[in-house]
Amino acid sequence: MFSTPFVLSFALLLSxxxxxxxxxxxxxxxxxxxxxxxxxDDLALFRRATLSSSSSLLLNHHxxxxxxxxxxxxxxxxxxxxxxxxxxxxxxxxxxLWELFFQxxxxxxxxxxxxxxxxxxxxxxxxxxxxRFIAARxxxxxxxxxxxxxxxxxxxxxxxxxxxxxFAIISQHCIPLHSFQFAYRTLLSSPQISTESPPELTQFNxxxxxxxxxxxxxxxxxxxxxxxxxxxxxEVSFExxxxxxxxxxxxxxHALLVIKDRRLWRKFRLPCLNTQSCYPxxxxxxxxxxxxxxxxxxxxxxxxxxxxxSFDGHPHVYHPPEIxxxxxxxxxxxxxTYSYLFARKFSPDCLKPLLDLASGMGNLxxxxxxxx
Length: 372
Prior knowledge:
The chain is α/β, with parallel strands linked by helices. Helices cover 34% and strands 11% of the residues.
């Protein structure tokens, strides 16, 4: 017979592989922490962007929706720009399609990329994406790092060019559904709304921000209490807590509002205890804008997402067999005032069929002009 110590040692040896396999399922997961030096760096960036914006642009706004300002080149009354903010942790798989989208419109847009330091990106020389990377830090799902990354993008774009008037958060899985002309015309000719925010400029009308803001969702309570039962109080009561899409288009005044915020950020930067219900980036921006300026927002997004067969918090992923001209038309259809301008989520191998679809119609540009 085997001795008891031998049996125990043998059992322990056999259990070690099982321990490594199952322990992560029972132990609380480790998350990327926002260090104090990183937080201070962000605050310094936000202050610079706020001061720069306060002293340069947005002095007036006339009925053609063009901002009266003097650009760095000295041109008076130049056209406003759209800042495209790419937030990614992988390569920019659809860069060739976006290159097509941007072609010929350089004076009307800027690009900024926040790439997770672990991401391996391949940007060919001469690309519109070349040298458009901002200082980035590691991001992680179910953590406030995605909020920080978006705020960092907004601040950098505000600081970089005073003509940036709209700020579109884009993921590496997004594709454009219309031409640049259509998107630009949609945003810059959107109906102007009167708002009490900011109070020092109430004599003007302001462009709308396109961000999803929802209340009454089935899992809203679980999401609200993800950090603990009463942790969000008193700053955010459950009645004022909102949910929305991670991807949105903000007008300049709302981008400034986001980077100026300290009060709500102190709550949303706290770690979640229940990571299954924790999506900080889907809550912080809708809640903040709903609390500060609900009438200045559309309450819907311009990025189409298919949640019909979502899994583990991820939406439907389109694959090559699904790519067709009919799909593009279907993705554009919206129940709101405007057509969707962008769509996600597409697998990287969709690039070729998308470009093939465009090429088969005579030339690449025609794909992005269908129905415009």
